[in-house]
Fold this sequence. Notes:
Layout: E1 27-37, E2 43-52, H1 56-100
Antiparallel strand pairs: 1-2
Amino acid sequence: xxxxxSSSISMTKKTLNPCTxxxxxxxxxxxxxxxxxxxxxKIQSVTFGQTICPNPxxxxxVDQEIKVLEEKQASLKKKRESNDFTRKKNSxxxxxxxxxNKSRI
Length: 105
């Protein structure tokens, strides 16, 4: 006889999409479809979804954290573009200088 005490078995539910801050299961806020062109040139309809934390206070904090990260990324991108421009300008000046100093034997 196979006797298993059902109260001793504990089933833990794993969340598929937990909140990054509180760990609660995130809920679907909105969905939308966009048409995208594939590598083969065909149009494919893709469905996107935006999830949010069910706790509004937690979601406000997460939104603020995301905003700070986006601002940081934007400033880093701007700095990188500025550095690239300066690097290209300096390399062009060095190339022109090298051309002028070339011996003409």
